[in-house]
Design a protein that fits this description.
The radius of gyration is 18 Å and the shape is globular. The strands form two sheets. Strands 2, 4, 5, 6, 7, 8, 9, 10 and 11 form a nine-stranded mixed sheet that branches. A two-stranded antiparallel ribbon has the order 1-3. It contains six helices and eleven strands. By secondary structure, it is of the alpha+beta class. Strand 8 and strand 9 form a beta hairpin.
Length: 212
């Protein structure tokens, strides 16, 4: 079956060849290997964090380096250029097995970096997020942890704020997009960069926010 599909046999049994996947609510880039050799080489880069992944998200509110509430949260620090670094452990939620939760013991190490790209009058912000690790729902859980959940996120977000965004700006789904990725195709070669533009419906939401 795998040979017929032309995909590598690595990865999960029901996802042959998948090296990098995204949540079903998220749009953007996927990485699928066609050979076992390619799958192994690419998976190793993601494991060693040498492959770079950048996401775009609309978050409720605007993270501010001067906010004492934000600075007082565990796992939060700021780097040069007002880059927010979130370092926690993640594990399955104790009562809802479909969700992940921030924990401090017996979880999986997770690191997200983010910066504000555009401030929509304090009500929302366009964020660029980089993954150092790639845990399930990582950006969504970390955004909720800092009190600025991803817009349209029904699992981790603010339901009332989501309703307002839907009514006022036409946002009908999670605003999280795997925008770019960089990795090497072969040892010794220069990194290869992929970019995925925002879908028209997400661009329309951005335009409405900017027009306010």
């Amino acid at each position: 079956v795998l040979a017929a599909r032309g995909l590598a046999g690595g990865g999960e049994e029901d996802r042959p060849g998948i090296v990098h996947r995204i949540d079903k609510e998220t749009s953007g880039l996927l990485v699928v290997a066609k050979t076992d050799r390619a799958h192994h080489a690419l998976a190793l880069q993601f494991e060693k964090h040498t492959a770079e992944r950048a996401y775009l998200a609309i978050c409720h509110g605007v993270p501010d380096a001067g906010d004492p509430r934000l600075r007082g949260l565990p796992g939060i620090s700021f780097e040069q250029g007002a880059v927010l670094k979130i370092t926690t452990q993640l594990a399955r939620h104790k009562t809802d097995r479909q969700r992940q939760a921030v924990v401090w013991n017996d979880g999986r190490h997770a690191v997200t970096r983010a910066r504000v790209v555009e401030d929509f009058k304090g009500a929302a912000s366009l964020m660029e997020c980089w993954l150092e690790t790639g845990r399930t729902h990582q950006i969504r859980v970390h955004a909720a942890h800092i009190g600025h959940p991803v817009a349209g996120d029904e699992k981790y977000g603010d339901k009332e704020a989501n309703k307002k965004l839907a009514a006022n700006y036409g946002l009908k789904r999670l605003f999280l997009h795997a925008a770019s990725m960089q990795f090497a195709l072969n040892d010794g070669q220069s990194p290869y960069t992929l970019n995925a533009p925002l879908a028209p419906e997400l661009n329309a939401v951005l335009d409405r926010l900017a027009d306010e």
